[in-house]
From TrEMBL:
Protein name (record): Superoxide dismutase
Domain (Manganese/iron superoxide dismutase C-terminal): residue spans on this chain: 98-197
Species for this entry: Amanita muscaria (strain Koide BX008)
Highest taxon, organism lineage: Eukaryota
Catalytic activity: 2 superoxide + 2 H(+) = H2O2 + O2
Signal peptide range in chain numbering: none
One Gene Ontology term, aspect cellular component: mitochondrion
Recorded family membership: Belongs to the iron/manganese superoxide dismutase family.
Keywords tagged on the record: Antioxidant, Metal-binding, Oxidoreductase
Function of the molecule: Destroys radicals which are normally produced within the cells and which are toxic to biological systems.
Pfam families noted in UniProt: Sod_Fe_C, Sod_Fe_N
EC category: oxidoreductase
EC number(s) stated in the UniProt entry for this protein: 1.15.1.1
Binding site for Mn(2+): 30, 75, 164, 168
Length: 209
């Protein structure tokens, strides 16, 4: 089923780089404990799948593969999705420049501020744990907002921006103020990375056509 074990990816910035919007404590715990757990459990599940001798045994492992595989996939995307905030003179977080992504956002939502408000409203309404996504729908050639639950990966669209809404991503800093976390996380969104994903998504659509 696999050739090499999955590994915890390194972050492209320090654990304190997203402060004051995401604390060093949260980033370190989130990356070294939570994400690492998904990586370790995914490796264990794949090893068990390889050793399974019956269809029944393999079926019993499917939920662990989906949950931990989704956790690893989602978090790997999430880290690249973030950047040190520009309003604190740390980096390019929160800056949406003119270009294809901005044009697509304006086409799909009117403007970035409207998208952000609709995204936050949708994601705040997720009951329990999950994710909020800005995804590209190649069938209609536009961006759409999609929630997913638990660690389910976004499979219906090509992910462009994803935000973790599990409590471990914000509770130590924001407590029960999920809306404030959602408002502030946009100041750390790496729109340059999001535009790279959008450009690649459009290329995939063009190649298929």
């Amino acid at each position: 089923m696999r050739t090499t074990p999955h590994e915890l990816p390194k972050l492209p910035y320090g654990y304190d780089a997203l402060e004051p919007y995401v604390s060093k404590q949260i980033m370190e715990l989130h990356h070294t404990k939570h994400h690492k757990m998904y990586v370790d459990m995914l490796n264990s599940a794949e090893e068990a799948y390889d050793k399974a001798e019956s269809t029944r045994e393999r079926m019993a492992i499917q939920s662990a593969l989906r949950f931990n595989g989704g956790g690893h996939l989602n978090h790997s995307l999430f880290w690249m999705n973030l950047a040190p905030p520009s309003d604190k003179n740390k980096g390019n977080g929160g800056v949406l420049k003119d270009g294809p992504l901005k044009d697509a956002i304006n086409k799909s939502f009117g403007d970035c501020d409207t998208m952000r408000k609709e995204f936050n409203k949708m994601t705040s309404a997720v009951q329990g744990s999950g994710w909020g996504w800005v995804g590209y729908n190649p069938l209609v050639d536009q961006l759409e907002l999609i929630p997913t639950h638990n660690q389910d990966p976004l499979l219906t669209h090509i992910p462009i921006i994803g935000v973790d809404i599990w409590e471990h991503s914000y509770y130590l800093q924001y407590f029960n103020e999920k809306d404030r976390y959602l408002e502030n996380i946009w100041k750390c969104i790496n729109f340059e990375e999001a535009e790279k994903r959008y450009r690649e998504a459009r290329k995939q659509k063009t190649r298929k056509n």
